[in-house]
């Protein structure tokens, strides 16, 4: 009984070892045939597939013998796999031919075809069929009979390790900055190889090593990481917006066109701030200014976007301009410029339920919609006289300032017309519809009723909260702002105090001072002065821009310079005279200490003229 128990225990241990060894996909020998384990079944046993004919059979574990694959076999499989997938010299036709030959070998081994029939089916002679059949390995498949191409594998390097190291070093060291060139890299390689006693590689060899570096890294080395990200970085994410006014983007740019002043003299390139609604692609609002981007530009563009443009359209006096888009947005998306992160802008947005969202740093494509919109309108600007074009190559030798023909008001009218045209143009992202059509669709209920865009309950307070802010010290004459005095009864008792006020850049005739939660109008003292905007204040005549005390004629400047020179000369003369007096005083003091003080003459009474009492007195007159 003990012997039987020991034998059974040994059998059980062998079965456990067999179970531990057998795995899916493993090669085994079953009834003298090379097979592959497909799956396991508790009742039927192990399902195996014959590698020669593809037939399936069930076998018990004790009927299977594992095939031990040597390291040499593993290395062969690895090399054949690389040859099949990675070697660029292997063509798709060669892979197809190897697959057809494998099918013929399987049919021959399963006795479906004779040797001659199998050879003829793939266009081979019997002797060639036999030679290739010897190379065929069922465990490797068609890869084992692939014709190995002749010649060097692509990417094979024949240069020495020292030369390769020099090339890599010179590429990393000298291909840096916008002025980097491949020719300079080669010259550095030539110098270092010559001084090191190495053979200089050819330009073609250096060029091949250079272009093996990924394009992203080459662009980063020459133009910087930001340029590389924008050129070669993946931008697969997209923003989906379901309703109008849910998501709005804002940004600035300098207009690629010069404008003229009132005297038709070239002035400058204006700035423009634009807002786009991502759902409808409409230009929700914009603001054109002569000042660089600031909190003023943001506030004015936002106010223009939230309220109807009725007043502006009346000023243009063009009935063909249609602009019905406005409303209070839920999210305003911007870059990380300081004007978008100002406390006044953020506080005003949050107070009215607008969520200010900033782009991730260094990710311009997150603002792709507004960037593309600005690019579209700048493309239209390039057709105007006075356009700077997109670069100096397109501009050529033409001076855009001399070619300019529009003053600021004329450019604003042209831009308003261009916006109206854009709203009526089919948009690819809107599936062929126009921005106006999508806006009207979103502003209409399913029943056909119009929806009014949301606006603030107190438009005046909303606009003033976003208007730019400034501060001044109240003088006895009032508040001095833009060379004008402003006064109101509410300023009584605030003399010598610093007050913070709002102002409308479109109309500088009044200021707005917030007291006890309400804005009070501080009107201009000169009631006869014409209304003026901030742009007009900047464009005013040169003589009006001069401050009090400005000297005009050259003669007066010469007189001022002569006075300056006289001041210097008189100071020198006075200094010399002072030194001489001090020297004389010291000399007299030393002399008196030796010879004594000078003699003082005796005092004598002055002669007194006697008055004649009989003298006739003369009466004084005014003529005397």
From TrEMBL:
Protein's UniProt name: Mu transposase C-terminal domain-containing protein
Organism of derivation: Pseudomonas viciae
InterPro entries membership: Integrase_cat-core, RNaseH-like_sf, RNaseH_sf, Transposase-like_Mu_C
Domain Integrase catalytic residues, every copy: 239-443
Record-linked PROSITE patterns: INTEGRASE
One protein family per Pfam: Mu-transpos_C
Span list, region Disordered: 543-624
Positions with biased composition (Basic and acidic residues): 552-574, 607-624
Annotated Gene3D superfamilies: Ribonuclease H-like superfamily/Ribonuclease H
Top-level taxon of the source organism: Bacteria
């Amino acid at each position: 009984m003990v012997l039987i128990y020991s034998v059974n225990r040994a059998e059980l241990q062998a079965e456990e070892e067999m179970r531990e060894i057998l795995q899916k996909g493993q090669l085994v020998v079953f009834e003298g045939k090379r097979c592959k384990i497909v799956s396991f079944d508790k009742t039927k046993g192990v399902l195996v597939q014959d590698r020669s004919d593809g037939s399936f059979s069930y076998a018990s574990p004790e009927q299977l013998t594992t095939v031990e694959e040597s390291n040499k076999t593993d290395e062969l499989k690895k090399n054949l796999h690389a040859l099949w997938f990675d070697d660029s010299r292997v063509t798709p036709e060669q892979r197809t031919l190897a697959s057809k030959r494998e099918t013929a070998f399987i049919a021959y081994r399963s006795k479906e075809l004779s040797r001659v029939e199998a050879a003829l089916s793939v266009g081979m002679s019997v002797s060639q069929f036999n030679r290739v059949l010897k190379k065929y390995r069922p465990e490797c498949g068609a890869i084992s009979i692939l014709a190995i191409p002749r010649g060097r594998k692509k990417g094979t390097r024949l240069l020495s390790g020292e030369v390769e190291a020099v090339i890599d070093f010179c590429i990393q060291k000298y291909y840096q900055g916008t002025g980097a060139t491949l020719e300079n890299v080669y010259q550095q390689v030539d110098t270092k190889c010559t001084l090191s006693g190495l053979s200089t590689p050819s330009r073609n060899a250096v060029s091949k090593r250079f272009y093996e570096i990924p394009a992203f890294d080459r662009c980063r080395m020459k133009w910087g990481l930001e340029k590389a990200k924008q050129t070669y970085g993946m931008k697969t994410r997209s923003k989906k917006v379901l309703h109008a006014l849910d998501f709005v983007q804002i940004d600035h740019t300098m207009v690629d066109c010069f404008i003229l002043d009132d005297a038709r003299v070239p002035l400058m390139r204006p700035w423009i701030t634009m807002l786009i609604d991502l759902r409808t692609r409409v230009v929700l609002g914009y603001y054109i200014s002569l000042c660089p981007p600031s909190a003023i530009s943001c506030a004015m563009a936002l106010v223009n976007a939230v309220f109807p443009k009725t007043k502006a359209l009346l000023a243009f006096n063009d009935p063909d301009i249609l602009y019905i888009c406005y409303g209070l947005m839920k999210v305003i998306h911007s870059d990380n410029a300081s004007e978008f992160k100002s406390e006044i802008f953020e506080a005003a947005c949050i107070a009215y339920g607008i969520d200010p969202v900033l782009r991730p740093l260094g990710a311009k494509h997150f603002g792709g919609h507004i960037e593309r919109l600005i690019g579209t309108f700048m493309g239209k600007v390039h057709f105007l006289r006075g356009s700077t074009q997109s670069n100096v190559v397109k501009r050529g030798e033409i001076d855009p300032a001399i070619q300019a023909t529009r003053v600021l008001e004329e450019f604003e009218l042209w831009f308003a017309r261009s916006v109206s045209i854009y709203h009526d143009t089919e948009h690819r992202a809107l599936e062929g519809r126009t921005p106006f059509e999508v806006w009207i669709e979103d502003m209409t209920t399913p029943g056909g009723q119009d929806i009014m865009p949301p606006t603030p309950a107190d438009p005046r307070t909303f606009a003033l909260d976003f208007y730019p802010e400034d501060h001044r010290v109240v003088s006895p004459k009032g508040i001095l702002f833009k060379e004008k005095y402003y006064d109101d009864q509410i300023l009584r008792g605030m003399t010598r105090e610093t007050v913070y006020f709002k102002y409308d850049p479109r109309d500088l005739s009044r200021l707005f001072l917030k007291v006890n939660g309400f804005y009070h109008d501080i009107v201009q003292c000169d009631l006869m002065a014409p209304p003026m905007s901030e742009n007009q204040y900047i464009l005013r005549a040169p003589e009006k821009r001069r401050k009090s005390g400005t000297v005009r004629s050259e003669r007066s400047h010469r007189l001022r310079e002569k006075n300056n020179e006289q001041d210097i000369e008189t100071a020198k003369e006075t200094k010399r005279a002072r030194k001489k007096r001090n020297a004389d005083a010291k000399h007299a003091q030393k002399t008196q200490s030796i010879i004594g003080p000078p003699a003082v003459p005796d005092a004598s009474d002055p002669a007194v003229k006697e008055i004649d009492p009989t003298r006739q007195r003369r009466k004084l007159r005014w003529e005397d």
